[in-house]
Amino acid sequence: MSSTTADASTTGTTVITNIASLVTNDPSLGDGSPLGLIRDAAVVIDGDRIAWTGESREAPATDNRIDAAGRAVIPGFVDSHSHLVFAGDRTQEFNARMSGRAYSAGGIRTTVAATRAASDEELERNLTRYLDEALRQGTTTLETKSGYGLTVEDEARALRIASAHTDEVTYLGAHIVSPDHADDPAGYVALVTGEMLDACAPYARWIDVFCEKGAFDGDQARAILTAGRAKGLHPRVHANQLTYGPGVRLAVELDAASADHCTHLTDADVDALASGATVATLLPGAEFSTRAQWPDARRLLDAGVTVALSTDCNPGSSFTSSVPFCIALAVRDMGMTPDEAVWSATAGGARALRRTDVGRLTPGAYADLALLDAPSHVHLAYRPGVPLVRRVWRRGVRVV
Ligand SMILES: [Zn+2]
């Protein structure tokens, strides 16, 4: 890196120039592909926004200049699915699963107990630790959920803490039936759609439900999402992860922004996704960490479905905050091309959050971008496990 550096003290406009390849996600730019790839490119930042993108030699004059020295620049990742308000970890459970040993601890219930016992400060420290970890790996927009409190007070607390750190907050009181209501699931649904919803709605943008055998069935999920919508929350759904089921079709029917997991899909599910605005968010960290069957991204893409890629970062089934890792898995095992995977982890994530101001590097969008220590975005899959994110700007401020 040479010349000046756009950090918190930089004023005026800044150009990042000598970019070997720039992913804009604007197909009207550059090579005309969905990535809108521009070779020998420059990008101009003005305040918290992108002011200009194009070829280096056409860049306008600016106050500051950064030389990318032939590296690639991409939009910051938009991780539209995580569960980061929690305490404790589940190392022993993971170790047993990966070692082929039986393990009878309580799964999500273990995290619920630890989260309830934690102080506000401990939960917040944990959350900011993982947000920082994600930022260092290029994630500039991150959604996160409640779901490890499962009481009115603990769910509202989780969302209050999350909302201090991200705009994309999801109420997931319907993660599992609370252990306190093990014999009365209907009573728990009444709580989730009643008093708990009232306490949580002020802190959340989204409502989510784990629609799965052993969690909530289609009728319960419909009641939960409909109640949330009446309080101004927009639906998203944990759907078709472990088995076939009604989650995906319910998501499309209710115009959910996203159906997440989408691992077990019938042709009717794929057709439904292709017909609506609901994004299929694939979370390969979960399949990796549970040695489960991969979702078939190729089938969805070939049917015309919009696909997002996210981490599902959580202490039980996918304890990674690395979007580049998920990109590598999606390319290696889910039939995605490197271009598709990078699009899905940036523009796709933005679609899954119904955002047009992130996930793209076009004038007016937020100046959220990552400089890779590589000449091309393809290296994110080509060089798995290598920390290629060298610099990160969020809202025009260099944060990494
Ligand atoms: Zn999840």
Write the SSE topology:
Elements: E1 13-22, E2 38-46, E3 49-55, E4 64-75, E5 77-79, H1 91-98, H2 108-117, H3 120-136, E6 139-142, E7 144-145, H4 152-163, E8 169-174, H5 185-193, H6 195-200, E9 206-211, H7 218-230, E10 234-239, H8 247-253, E11 258-261, H9 267-275, E12 279-282, H10 284-290, H11 297-302, E13 307-309, H12 323-333, H13 338-352, E14 369-372, H14 379-382, E15 389-394, E16 397-398
Parallel strand pairs: 1-4, 5-6, 7-8, 8-9, 9-10, 10-11, 11-12, 12-13
Antiparallel strand pairs: 1-2, 2-3, 4-14, 14-15, 15-16
This protein binds zinc ion (ZN).
Zinc ion binds at residues 81, 83, 238, 312.
Q: Can you describe this structure in just a few lines?
A:
Keywords: Cytoplasm, Histidine metabolism, Hydrolase, Iron, Metal-binding, Zinc. The protein is α/β, with parallel strands linked by helices and 400 residues long.
